[in-house]
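User: Hey, my collaborator sent me this sequence without any context and asked if I could get a structure. I don't really work with proteins. Can you help?
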Amino acid sequence: MHRIEEPEEKKRVANESVEGLMMDIAAAEEEIIRWKSVAEQEAAAGRAVEQEFLAQIVGLLLSIGTSSEITLSNNSIDSYFFILSRLYMACK
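Assistant: No problem. I've predicted the 3D structure and written it out in structure-token form, which is a compact way to encode the shape of the chain:
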């Protein structure tokens, strides 16, 4: 009879362990979702700041008479260098 109780006890302990692990996984998934949301909000805020910065630079360039070929539609690093080089040349 002892042999029957031993496997039952092992099964019970294993089930409890699995339940605990499932709860840990669920908590980790919730934490991942929360951090992902925060990261997406931070990225959006950064993009907004970047757009405002570019708008100010373009406004400055246009106010000092540079060409109006500059647009905010292309946010590549080349655009930044182009805008900054035009600003530098205009200030010389």
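In plain terms: The mean pLDDT is 80. You can pass these tokens on to your collaborator as they are.
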